[in-house]
């Protein structure tokens, strides 16, 4: 049976989610300077006071948005990996995994995170808050890639090749920030997937 408190709690969760999604959109579309609490609140359709009730400072809002992006992206990556496993085998499977990893770095989430990273590089307080999140994101991304490729991460060669794939994906994401780099990116993904498949001895 529903309790009298549940509707209020649901509204609170919905407000929080709207604020986090609005923060990501602002960062990705208009950059760090424009992603203020006031602008985010207006975009989310809530008052500034309501926004500050959930997130007392801008840093609280930005950090929570990154956490939200992280959790959403990891759930998305898991679903993509399961879908890839069902439809592709052999080098086609490896290509699909690499492609999914690369495309995740061309999403609005990556563009929003890039705004935060750039600002954090010159802001020691923000950097201290962001580094643990990035470390956790990196570890989880690596583990997801290992699982999707089906390799033994205790093998140093496999470990470094997976990490190189993630580094490649991040670099291609950066190349796509200012211009549409999709045609060149596809060629690189195809070549790297073939090279990776052979280097990891994944068979036919």
Class per helix and strand makeup? mainly alpha
Arithmetic mean pLDDT = 87
Largest sheet: none
- Secondary-structure element string: HHHHHHHHH
Number of strands: 0
End-to-end Cα distance, whole Å, is 55 Å
Residues in helices, as a percent range: over 70%
The 3D shape can be described as: elongated
- Estimate the strand proportion: under 5%
List the helices and strands and how they pair.
Elements: H1 6-30, H2 37-44, H3 48-54, H4 58-87, H5 90-104, H6 108-120, H7 124-149, H8 156-175, H9 182-199
Helix pairs in contact: 1-2, 1-4, 1-6, 2-3, 4-5, 4-7, 5-8, 5-9, 6-7, 7-8, 8-9
Would you mind describing this structure in some detail?
- The protein is built from nine helices and no strands.
- The chain is mostly helical and 204 residues long.
- Helix 7 crosses helix 8.
- It is elongated.
- The mean pLDDT is 87.
Q: What descriptors fit this protein?
A:
79% helix, 9 helices, 204 residues, mainly alpha
